[in-house]
Design goal:
Chain lengths: 359, 363
């Protein structure tokens, strides 16, 4: 009798667990869900216009559909789309957030707070700025797109179409720049292209969640290198030689010289020689390349300093020497007086099948 | 295997279950810089009183806590242990409610809260009904499965840390001592260690081993706070509920077939927390039954669980939980400071008494 009672108890407990454990609440099958990969965001007179790029399963492969709606808030717009669609919108697999350039210039603090707060949007989603109206943009890439691949996503995927001149900034990094005292980000800018589907035209400098300037793809490479991307595979062209970067490393040290913040940064470049003209020697190539990087850095640094955006996170190196209360105004005060001594050191790793003169 | 391992393992994993959710948020809220100071201060307080507590127990002849207190007479014992009973009920309510909140934020957003809570609570009730031995054996089993997973994700969470956020090293104001969040953070310490006062007749443990287990916890205490701070910076991390969980969401592990490691992390810690709730329930029942031997164990557990679950359902918003946290700060101080001190005192007194008898340990 006791054994029977025990079994009964066990069965009841297990049964309850199973019933609760299935989690079948308002459950919707996968074929009744739309899983957008790209979300486009644009400001309109009252609130936002939201675009969603939805994959549509067909008998053969998938098709792509773009829907859009307007609303006071982002959720309102999405909600409206969900109402009109025959399936539920599930933002769980969102990979790219495409922001129109006007919205970026107005400031995206609120928008990114929403993205971080929303439970279903992944903070890993990439942030991209679109330099043209979203409506024609989606139409153009929709016409071009091979329905089987998600071009926009592959464009930024490290194991597909990404190259080192493209910045990769994620939602959480942009959110961090809204609040952090000493750190800003850059975000890639794209538009629909002439020949290729998408054209990368550089990056936007984001300071405190607001776009304050633009930089070129070559300058974005510098940003990437400073942030630990290797820059591997990028081909660097000079007046009469071209090389391929095979590795980069940055060393930096900041200190206070009286009241002036100073920073020494050394960029170590390893390159492979690809093309040479007019009997250039290795030494000349090295010197030219290092000068090219130096002038590029100086120009870029001058620009972002004017924009008060610390995209290289130089302020981070001063956390040891500047108290926190003063760091709070880093972008406004000390960053403006920062002196950076930048040096590029080049090593030629190999020069292919042809011998090159050393000197 | 010595039986001591189970006790130490439980001590370890139950703390892990508590550390990673509410603790980082409190510590980040209580200091703007130099977070390691409040962490280590809290930890030192914990270790000192933990030592006092287990020393008192061993001086008292390795009896359990309740019989030690009963040596003072029934009325003082009831009076001294009543706060413990109340605190245990609150621990149950807070953990079940807070953790189901996390579950619903992270992955079961459409499931009604009561269902998540029911699941989170039924298993512990069932385990508590089974008794202390099955709880400890289950701990060993669960730890074998979940600890490696947990350690892997913990190691992966260092992915995007920027060590420069570690500076500035010192907070010159030591303002955390006046911040209520700092005292709230003791929740991570106070909930667990009292179980050591209940295990004695069933399991034994060595004080030295226990001290090592607590030292092993230090890196987890430190990095549960520092991983969000080093990833986001203090200014950003202070905006988050559950900063550590947010940091996990930013992890990018391409070769792993699962995209969201957060879910796995949460699941492994949830099992630890369920074990803790089970043991806390069992202790509450033990307390009640020891003082009123005529009470039936099964019914006591059932009534207690019903009350606790009812309280969980009554809590409407996160704000209420915060309030509950603030209220039980005093009881928590009592648990952390007064209980170990009195146990030590009783233990020393018991040893001096002529009719002192030590229960031989069989480890």
């Amino acid at each position: 009798m006791r054994a029977f009672q025990r079994i009964l108890k066990l069965a009841a407990a297990l049964g309850l667990t199973v019933a609760a454990g299935t989690g079948c609440w308002d459950y919707k099958d996968i074929n009744h869900r739309s899983l957008p990969v790209v979300l486009g965001l644009q400001t309109v007179e009252e609130g936002y216009r939201v675009f969603l790029k939805l994959p549509e399963p067909k008998e053969k492969g998938t098709d792509v559909k773009v829907v859009s709606s307007e609303g006071h808030t982002i959720t309102k717009a999405i909600d409206q789309m969900a109402m009109n669609l025959e399936s539920e919108v599930d933002l769980l697999h969102l990979k790219i957030i495409l922001v129109h350039v006007n919205l970026a210039q107005m400031g995206m603090g609120d928008v990114f707070e929403f993205f971080m707060r929303a439970r279903d949007i992944s903070p890993k989603a990439l942030v991209v700025i679109c330099d043209e109206e979203l409506e024609p943009f989606f139409r153009k890439i929709g016409q071009r797109a091979d329905p089987n691949v998600s071009n926009l996503f592959d464009f930024f995927e490290k194991n597909a179409g990404w190259s080192p001149q493209i910045a990769l900034s994620r939602v959480w990094q942009v959110y961090r720049s809204v609040h952090s005292y000493t750190r800003d980000v850059v975000v890639p800018i794209i538009r629909s292209g002439g020949r290729t589907t998408i054209e990368h035209i550089g990056s936007a400098v984001i300071r405190n969640g607001r776009m304050v300037g633009r930089i070129s793809p070559d300058e974005t490479l510098l940003f990437n290198v400073f942030n630990g991307e290797s820059g591997q595979g990028k081909i660097e062209v000079m007046k009469n030689a071209s090389v391929m970067i095979s590795g980069t490393r940055v060393k930096r040290r900041g200190w206070m010289d009286g009241d002036t913040p100073r920073l020494a940064a050394t960029l170590n470049l390893s390159v492979d020689l690809i093309e040479l003209k007019e009997e250039m020697t290795e030494d000349q190539v090295m010197r030219q390349l290092s000068e090219q990087f130096k002038s590029r850095f100086d120009r870029l640094f001058e620009q972002v300093r004017k924009e008060k955006a610390d995209i290289f996170a130089f302020g981070q190196d001063f956390r040891r020497c500047i108290p926190r209360e003063r760091l709070r105004d880093w972008r406004e005060e000390d960053y403006g007086r920062l002196k950076v001594d930048f040096r590029a050191r080049v090593d030629i790793e190999n020069d292919g099948y042809i011998k090159t003169k050393q000197k | 295997m010595s039986r001591s391992v189970h006790v130490l393992l439980f001590y370890f994993v139950a703390h892990l279950g508590l550390i990673f959710f509410i603790y980082p948020e409190d510590i980040i809220a209580c200091a703007e810089e130099g977070h390691w100071v409040p962490i280590l201060v809290g930890f030192a307080v914990h270790v000192f009183f933990l030592w006092l507590f287990v020393k008192g127990l061993s001086l008292g002849g390795n009896r359990d806590m309740v019989s030690l207190y009963l040596g003072l007479g029934k009325a003082p014992a009831v009076l001294l242990l009543l706060p413990v009973f109340v605190y245990y009920a609150m621990v149950d309510v807070i953990t079940v409610r807070a953790y189901s909140e996390i579950v619903s934020i992270v992955f079961l957003e459409k499931t009604p809260l009561w269902a998540v809570m029911a699941l989170l609570f039924l298993i512990p009730v069932w385990l508590a009904n089974a008794g202390i031995r099955p709880i400890f054996y289950a701990t060993a089993l669960v730890a074998i499965v979940c600890l490696p997973l947990f350690l892997f994700i913990f190691a992966a969470s260092f992915q995007s840390v920027d060590w420069r956020y570690f500076f500035p090293l010192f907070d010159r104001h030591y303002g955390f001592l006046w911040d209520s969040s700092f005292y709230k953070s003791f929740f991570a310490f106070a909930g667990v260690f009292l179980f050591l006062g209940f295990v004695q007749p069933y399991f034994t443990f060595r004080i030295r081993g226990l001290m090592w287990a607590s030292v092993l916890l230090v890196p987890f205490f430190l990095f549960s706070v520092y991983i969000p701070v080093l990833t986001f910076g203090e200014a950003t991390a202070s905006n988050f509920h559950y900063p550590f969980v947010v940091t996990l969401d930013t992890l990018q592990i391409n070769w792993l077939m699962f995209e969201r490691v957060t879910v796995f992390f949460l699941m492994s810690l949830l099992t630890f927390v369920m074990l803790l709730v089970a043991l806390v329930l069992w202790q509450s029942v033990e307390l009640a039954v020891r003082f009123f031997p005529r009470m039936n164990r099964g019914w006591t557990l059932l009534v207690l669980s019903a009350i606790v679950f009812g309280c969980c359902l009554r809590i409407r918003s996160w704000h209420d939980i915060e309030l509950l946290f603030m209220w039980n700060t005093w009881i928590r101080a009592y648990i952390m400071l007064v209980v170990p001190a009195t146990v030590y005192w009783i233990g020393r007194r018991a040893k001096k008494e002529p009719d002192y008898e030590s229960i031989p340990t069989n480890s």
